[in-house]
Write a structure and sequence with these properties.
Elements: H1 11-15, H2 20-32, H3 55-69, H4 77-87, H5 92-104, E1 121-126, H6 134-147, E2 151-157, H7 182-192, E3 196-202, E4 205-207, H8 219-222, H9 231-238, H10 245-257, E5 265-266, H11 272-288, E6 293-297, H12 310-321, H13 326-338, H14 342-346, H15 348-371, E7 378-383, H16 387-393, H17 398-404, E8 409-414, H18 421-434, E9 439-444, H19 451-463, E10 468-471, H20 474-478, H21 483-492, H22 494-497
Parallel strand pairs: 1-2, 1-10, 2-3, 3-6, 6-7, 7-8, 8-9, 9-10
Antiparallel strand pairs: 4-5
Helix pairs in contact: 2-5, 3-4, 3-5, 4-5, 6-7, 6-21, 11-15, 19-21
Length: 498
């Protein structure tokens, strides 16, 4: 982008208005006083931090990110870099004054890079099928502008694959052998038009039997021990080594027979190696691409009858054994030889809690890994809209993720049909009530609604206090003539929002 190469203001341009007394005052304050803990997303990017930190350390992180990426999401990052060069290696606290001075200076000409979190999100989910050709990517960005969207959630990991170059996982068959990098292209195009891009990652759904990825480095081939097992198949699979040909074929066959309840083969969040792998995948994207956020999907179990892999059962047994008596441990050790599922049967409430916690650990691990690279990264998750259903059947405790600050935004997938308007409204109100201090971008199933009903639901969501909307999906809107223009005229354009 031209804005990222614009020349920064000179030292004299920015510093002249400040007196020597102001320099001394800010030096003292910046060196001594810490900022209080600041909750994410209700403050400027500069303050988006965890814990109590000195202003100087926040500024250093901001400037460090700007130096590495050229786009910190902070509209003053260019001025800040110029000031750091001017003041030299003196007191870090003096840099506090420098960045404050930049805030009062006139920015250089040219368009600015988009901020990472819009105050009113107007987003769409862009499914990976829209990324396989360059002209499709350009069309998506043009349509986003036409609709008045300010955010794109772009699917870069569909089934344990990478819709970008040089990742830790193999590309899908549609991109194998190509130099084309769809993520790089859409980030550059969208940022040039003032639109933020969040990398959409399917966390635990890793394989579709109907569309297998033959690449030998795919995790299903390399690490079958990472895969999740259903309860009805557990005893049979536990007798087979994960590398056995029958292990994957039986799992695939089961998934095909139960398509109504499970979308494909899942990775198991109870497996600590898989959790680390997924955190590494997300961190790699943040490190190498100027994305504004990480968006987590399928960050859950398929249902209550899933999670019976060797790794999950062993980890749960270790947890329970720490808390029961020696006599009970001896008794359970004998029982588990006859029935490997006995711990889950004896302690069903604890088993449910265990699965909730390992999913939460996965979310926390991703947050830690990505924010360690760029503290301003926005983390969101697509979640089931009914809080009780999400918690008890999917083990997706998204309200806790918001409370803990592991995610910044929850996106309830509120895909009620036209005939289910009351259900949509009830779910929306309940999700907003459950968000606490977090944010909710309400997901709307626009692919199954007339465009007029989508517009009506956007208005309702705003009226009851959501922080934004996400339309599923961008491709679904492409099939409705005039949909993008109508969104701008009615709810997403500047005049429509006044």
């Amino acid at each position: 982008m031209n804005s990222r190469r614009a020349s920064a203001p000179s030292c004299s341009t920015v510093m002249a208005p400040w007196s020597q007394a102001a320099w001394v005052a800010v030096f003292c304050i910046g060196s001594i006083l810490p900022f209080p803990r600041v909750s994410p997303l209700r403050t400027p990017t500069l303050w988006r931090c965890r814990g109590s930190v000195k202003p100087s350390s926040v500024i250093c992180r901001t400037l460090d990110r700007a130096a590495r990426t050229g786009h910190g999401g902070d509209r003053h990052s260019r001025e800040g870099r110029a000031m750091l060069r001017c003041v030299g290696p003196g007191s870090i606290a003096t840099v506090s004054l420098v960045l404050l001075a930049a805030c009062g200076s006139a920015p250089p000409p040219g368009p600015e890079a988009p901020a990472p979190l819009p105050p009113d999100a107007r987003a769409s989910w862009v499914v990976r099928s829209s990324l396989t050709r360059e002209r499709s990517v350009r069309r998506v960005v043009d349509e986003a502008v036409a609709a008045g969207l300010n955010t794109l959630l772009v699917q870069v990991r569909g089934r344990g694959d990478a819709y970008f170059q040089g990742g830790l996982e193999p590309p899908p068959p549609s991109l194998q052998g190509k130099d084309y990098d769809p993520l790089r292209l859409i980030v550059d195009l969208a940022h040039a038009r003032g639109i933020t891009v969040h990398a959409w990652v399917n966390a635990n759904l890793v394989w579709s039997p109907e569309q297998p990825n033959p690449h030998p480095l795919h995790l299903v081939h390399r690490h079958p021990e990472w895969l999740m097992a259903p309860e009805p198949l557990a005893r049979e699979l536990l007798r087979l080594p994960p590398g056995h040909d029958g292990f994957r074929s039986r799992l695939e066959s089961y998934v095909k027979q139960h398509k109504s309840s499970v979308e494909g083969v899942y990775g198991d969040p109870a497996n600590s190696e898989y959790r680390r792998h997924l955190a590494d995948v997300c961190a790699d994207v943040v490190r190498r691409y100027d994305v504004d956020g990480i968006h987590l999907d399928y960050i859950r179990y398929p249902g209550p009858k899933w999670g019976y892999s060797r790794a999950g059962l062993d980890a749960f047994r270790v947890e329970i054994d720490r808390e029961i008596s020696a006599g009970d441990r001896r008794d359970m050790a004998g029982r588990v030889l006859k029935n490997p599922l006995v711990y889950t049967r004896r302690y069903p409430v604890r088993w449910a809690s265990f699965r909730r916690r390992v999913v939460s650990r996965m979310v926390e691990g991703i947050a830690t890994a990505t924010r360690g690279i760029r503290s301003s990264i926005v983390i969101s998750a697509a979640v089931f809209p009914d809080v009780t259903d999400a918690r008890d059947r999917r083990f997706q405790e998204w309200t806790e993720w918001l409370r803990s600050g592991w995610i910044d935004v929850a996106c309830p997938m509120n895909y009620a049909t036209s005939a289910e308007r009351s259900t949509f409204e009830q779910r929306t109100r309940a999700a907003i009530a459950a968000r606490g201090r977090g944010r909710v971008w309400m997901g709307i199933g626009s692919w199954r609604l007339p465009i007029d009903e989508t517009v009506s639901r956007v208005r309702f969501v705003r009226r009851v206090g959501a922080n934004g909307v996400v339309l599923f999906s961008h491709g679904g809107l492409q099939g409705q003539a005039g949909a993008f223009g109508k969104l701008r005229r009615t709810v997403f354009g500047d005049a429509a929002r006044e």
